[in-house]
Amino acid sequence: MHWQTSVRSLRGIQSEPMFKFIHAADIHLDSPLRGLERYEGAPVDAIRQATRRALENLVRLAIQNQVAFVLLAGDLYDGDWKEFRTGLFFVSQMVKLREAGIPVYLIAGNHDAANKMTRRLPLPENVSVFPPDEPKTLVLPDCDVAIHGQSFARASVLENLSQNYPAADSGLFNIGLLHTAATGREGHEPYAPCTVEGLRAKHYDYWALGHVHKQEVLCDDPPILFSGNIQGRHIRETGPKGCVMVTVDDRHATELQWQWLDVFRWEYCRVDASSATTGDDMLDRVRQRLSHLVAAADGRSLAVRVEVAGSCRAHRALAAEPNRWTNEIRALAQDVGGGELWIEKVQLRTALPADTAGQSLDGPIGELVQRIAELKTDPQDLANLGGEFSDLLEKLPPELKEGSESLGLERPEKLREMLDQVEQMLIHQLLAREGPP
């Protein structure tokens, strides 16, 4: 396992370690792939198994470090299971922790509350689930810990659950277990809202939060943080994923270590092509960035979205043959990643440099450029063009119509983007045949 620089509580110098525990959340076991099969070459089977392998890594980490307990801050599952084996796999992993003498304390999140089968699944005796009707406190006398938590009773909880959590138990190490969006996070429903000030007012020693899939420390003293999910599931969940290992000393000071559990990693690869003069120059820059991502992944398989941007002299060549350069990047990725690097999508967003964008082209090519410029700036012309495309699409046979709605030909901004590409493609082809003017 790999970890980042540890984060210490501000309460003072660390004394003798008393115990360790793990804070994890948002396992989303057997989460669906959301259309991943559409992408050619996608390692679908590997990604389908990724959440299971990440959970196995979590269990292995807990056993190897002999932690006192494991906290799971909600969303074990991903809504209704497609088959009961999802729940059985979770139970099998909890049994391994039971055999190692490690208890598990968990709360149900919004996805768990939406799952009818979850409520019927018998769990091993080492697993304790907090009730949904009101907060409950569990005291662990062996390590002088009090854990306070409440599950979601339904999929949508819009009230502040934390305000009803009890005050801290004096003399114990108090932990709050909460599934929440805090003050709101992009991409997440605003469930169980709360504030850092409200959580600090409970005088707990640690708040283990779930629901937000990105690691985030909201407060250092006391530690209040989202552990993030343990395995990225799509391109909006990029970077390392895992849990937090917390070491507590006899003064109740904490040391936090991020432990990476993911087995398949999603990344953005942003490439600055501003000084590229040719398509090969651009490929050299892509190779450098992909090589860096492969090294940072430490042997994990990677799914990468490549975005090439910047004003460069290579723009016309790139815009004229986007399919060629997309395939060049995909082939390059196979070479760099040794078959463990998959390109999820390529986005070419370059432009001509300011000192060349205004250069005019004479003759028929110049007239073509002028006409395309008029099309792009005249709303009525764009509307007429969109109408012509609609008429053409209607004449297509049914098998070719599938997916045509996703082209977005009714949107002016999409038509302008396509005209940019067409313009550079035509200029490239015409100049290649006639030579530059």
Compact overview of the structure:
The protein is an alpha/beta fold and 437 residues long. Helices cover 34% and strands 22% of the residues. It has 3 domains: 7-262, Purple Acid Phosphatase, chain A, domain 2 (4-Layer Sandwich), CATH 3.60.21; 263-356, no CATH class; 360-437, no CATH class.
The number of strands is 16
Return the CATH class of the largest domain.
Alpha Beta
Shape: elongated
Strands side by side in the biggest sheet: 1-13-12-2-3-4-5
Binned, the helix content reads 25-40%
Q: Helices and strands, in N-to-C order?
A: EEHHEHEHEEEEHEEEEEEHEHHEHHHHH
| Overall structural domain count | 3
Distance between the termini: 60 Å
Number of helices: 13
Strand content: 15-25%
Strand count, sense and barrel status of the largest sheet are: 7 strands, mixed
**CATH superfamily label of the largest domain:** Metallo-dependent phosphatases
The CATH architecture designation of the largest domain is 4-Layer Sandwich
Runs in which pLDDT lies below 50 for 5 or more consecutive residues are 1-14
CATH topology (level 3) name of the largest domain: Purple Acid Phosphatase, chain A, domain 2
Q: Residue-averaged pLDDT, rounded?
A: 84
Q: Report the C-alpha radius of gyration, rounded.
A: 27 Å
Structural class: alpha/beta
